Amino acid sequence: MNPFTFSTAASVRFGAGLISQLGEMVKETIGTRVLLVTDPGMVATGIVDKALAALKSSGVEVRLFQDVQADPPEKVVMLCAEAAIEHGSYGVIGLGGGSSLDVAKLAALLAPGTETLKDAFGVGNAKGPRLPLILIPTTSGTGSEVTPISIVTTGTNEKMGVVSPVIIPDIALLDPELTLGLPSHITAATGIDAMVHAIESYASTSENNNPISRMLAEKALGLMGSSLLSAVQDGSDLETRSAMLLGSLLAGQAFANSPVAAVHALAYPLGGHFHIPHGLSNALVLPHVLRFNAETNPEPYAAIAPYAFPKLAEVGEQGRALAFCDELQKLSEACGLQQSLREMDIPEDVLPKLADDAMNQTRLLVNNPREVTREDALAIYQAAY
Predict the structure, then answer these.
(1) For a surface tag, which of 231, 251, 312, 313 has the fewest beta carbons within 10 Å of its beta carbon?
(2) How far, in Å, are 217, 234, 251, 307, 376 from residue 194 at the CA level?
(3) How far apart are the C-alpha atoms of 325 and 339, rounded to whole Å?
(4) pLDDT tens readout for residues 194-216
(5) CB count, 10 Å around CB of 277?
(6) Whether pTM exceeds 0.85
(7) 186: closest CA among 96, 101, 125, 121?
(8) What is the CA angle 143-199-14, rounded to 5?
(9) Which of 259-263, 267-271, 352-356 has the lowest mean pLDDT?
(10) Contact 150, 135 (CB under 8 A)
(11) Taking a C-beta distance cutoff of 8 angstroms, is the pair 279, 190 a contact?
(12) Are strands 133-137 and 171-174 parallel, antiparallel or unpaired?
């Protein structure tokens, strides 16, 4: 058995209504001055008010930063860090989707003033220290609440990552009640995103691919495969929402330690250039990347397929990997997601540029079960068109 390292949040707290205990957790972990990081959409839902009420009832002084954008640019990250410094925050809370959690991570990292964002980009470059950090996801997809990764959109519309165990939070607080109002299209896109995390983690060629990550990926796919379509069709069922949120967490823990690969590498340029939500970007390229990989390395996909789709256990191993690709595409379509780049009004003549940009995602492509050339990337985009 190969040596490996497995890291996750120091504390994971899961339960319906748990947001009401946020003030107590903050006083235990952070203190009495905190920056709350979120976005305008979250403010409009009323969820932020619940968090503020819980904090204020415990005597915690809060500075609200609500300017997070999807695919957050560097400028937003810097403004958030400056807000923490100006407020004298003792710690940071991230509340919302993956973008809010990613910005909160970096605000906590940059506020002490010991390193710059430029120096932190890349794998293992962020050293800390950071401010204490609590992350509260309100979608069931990114898994950012337990990952050492924060993704930022640079000035050239490319995505760059800060990857370091330093930015794993002290507490991941998961309250499935916060996901009850999630619109069906967001439920669908973030759910597919979480399934991609589990699939790519399981098949990753990273030296740190490990038995714990594979076990978590299997359980995550089982939870999400059985609940995603139901959650899209009826988002008010708390048990279904709980299964989705827990599945997302487990997938996040899996890929935090056994990193993702070419699906994400080809999805990032779609978000960077066309501001397509990350989960939908993944869904658009997922079946085409997996079919490409399965041509030479079908084993991991054949092994994990029955966890998501139990009926595939009856399919012979040779055909199971491709059947898995087909079932994932059918699920995406049944959830109402667009199925082609053409549907997203992406010009066909931009596909070569997307392929060029995807090849810059070397930290991801190195984990793919099959080598991806620039010509391969272009062919995958053409298949997805």
Answers:
(1) 313
(2) 10, 19, 6, 14, 25
(3) 13
(4) 999 999 999 999 999 999 999 99
(5) 21
(6) yes
(7) 96
(8) 30
(9) 267-271
(10) no
(11) yes
(12) parallel
